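My convention is simple: the sequence line spells out the residues, with the fold written below as integer tokens. I include a record here:
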Amino acid sequence: MTELKGALIGCGFFAVNQMHAWNDVRGARVVAICDRDPERLKIVGDQFGIDRRYSDAEALFADGGFDFVDIATTVQSHRTLVEMAARNKVPAICQKPFAKTLSDAKAMVEACRNAGIPLMVHENFRWQTPIQAVRKALEEDGIGTPFWGRFSFRSAYDVFSGQPYLAEGERFIIEDLGIHTLDIARYILGDVRSLTARTKRVNPGIKGEDVATILLDHENGATSVVDVSYATRLSREPFPETLIELDGSEGTIRLTQGYRLEITNARGTITTDVSPKLLSWASRPWHNIQESVYAIQQHWVDKLERGAEHSTSGADNLKTFALVEAAYDSAVRGQTIDVGAMLR
């Protein structure tokens, strides 16, 4: 198998996890990195032994010598960099949130489609071991046809100390965290027809919302609730676990704190430990997310080699992005939003 060569653009907070994961992925390695901050470029370059270092993305693409690009910058630069990759015919992974607006996201997908290159959004939460276990249980018909679900991420973890820019945006929890939880809801229960959302800012030291509750009407008739909070203090801090409840025609699934999966049906109740692996470079409690970074990057390489569609392709992620935009729209207007109309 020929080893694919990659380039990483963006050497910030989360990109270090991606670099560790690239070292573990079978069939690929990063050969060049790019960042406008010389200090971050040096830190990541030295840590991972990358000699090719660029402060300008145009120069990186001009030199070439790589098979794909991993864009790990903040959202403001995503469209520019994805369209740059398209012009250079380089397959691209793009960090979430995918774009500033849905129209930008559509343009990015179209640019890559016209260039004939794969585009995948780094929407890694669905690749977490416990989330995969829930999906497998459904596929094995453990509870029949699901008709109700809840996808919950409630915490008081201080995410601002490591990512202070999160406190400055007019949008916060839906765009940064809810996007993952909404994607999980889509992944488990299917696409969404309409939604209703309510938001609140509890922390006075931030600009955006830190609590959101979203009611989803899925196309298959199921109803679910997505609730996210960074203002919820609990006796045991669950960060960064997503908890799931599913009711089906023949049973129930509960993914509870501590990575315990409980399936109840006519045969009784089976409880399984679906804890993520603690990779050699990972640290608790982040190891759940860190393992999923490795999983999605391995998925990228495997599908790229086979020329197959990626689970979180740009086209697929438009449907998740539309849920984010619809949630904000609903919260402002106090109305139910037709999600399908946003994608037409």
User: Anything to note?
Assistant: The first strand starts at residue 4 and ends at 9.
